């Protein structure tokens, strides 16, 4: 992989859903489906939550990723089939995959790890027409590369469903 100059140099935090639609400023009720959006701004990565009725009117330019999910109940803890250590190990083991399905799976897993604050984003590099995110696992200094496969909404939904089955979670 060539080492192009990074386009952005910073670590970002991807927050949890706040229960408010970024388009309508109306509450998104617990257990309601909505679309979580991740985009890069001049000041860093920004997470937005969009209610399903407002999704069509939302400006989708410059999105890094988006996925449909369900607004969690306040103070409700989800039970997972796998712990965070296993998720991080799986992310690392998939580092050299080239198959499109596995690249997509690893990318969505990486987004989950970013959201869980187990992975931090450093920068984006461009290599052979591909966007490659440079990331670090929490507590580590070595970097990992994560290829952005530029998934469609349907592809994100399919991968999220696979991950949800693995993690036994409705929130993906």
Characterise this structure.
The longest helix has 16 residues, at about 100-115. This protein has 2 domains: about 15-75, no CATH class; about 80-170, no CATH class. The protein has helices at about 85-95, 100-115, 155-165, and strands at about 35-40, 45-50, 65-70, 120-125, 130-135, 145-150. It is globular, with a radius of gyration of 16 Å. A hairpin with a 2-residue loop joins β1 (about 35-40) and β2. The protein starts with about 30 loop residues before the first strand and ends in a 5-residue tail after the last helix. The strands form 2 sheets. It has a 3-stranded antiparallel sheet with strand order 2-1-3. Strands 4-5-6 form a 3-stranded antiparallel sheet, with helices on one face. It has 3 helices and 6 strands. Residues about 1-15 and about 170 have low confidence and may be disordered. It is α+β, with helices and mostly antiparallel strands and about 170 residues long.
């Amino acid at each position: 992989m060539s080492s192009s100059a990074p386009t952005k140099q910073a670590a970002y935090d991807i927050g949890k859903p706040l229960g408010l639609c970024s388009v309508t400023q109306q509450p998104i009720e617990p257990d309601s489906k909505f679309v979580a959006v991740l985009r890069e701004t001049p000041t860093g990565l920004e997470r937005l939550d969009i209610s399903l009725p407002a999704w069509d009117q939302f400006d989708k330019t410059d999105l890094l990723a988006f996925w449909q999910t369900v607004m969690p109940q306040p103070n409700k803890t989800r039970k997972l089939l796998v712990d965070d250590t296993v998720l991080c190990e799986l992310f690392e083991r998939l580092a050299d995959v080239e198959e499109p399905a596995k690249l997509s799976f690893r990318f969505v897993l990486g987004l989950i790890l970013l959201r869980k604050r187990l992975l931090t984003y450093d920068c984006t590099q461009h290599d052979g027409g591909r966007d490659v995110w440079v990331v670090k696992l929490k507590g580590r200094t070595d970097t990992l590369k994560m290829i952005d496969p530029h998934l469609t909404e349907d592809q994100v939904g399919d991968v999220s469903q696979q991950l949800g089955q693995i993690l036994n979670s409705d929130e993906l």
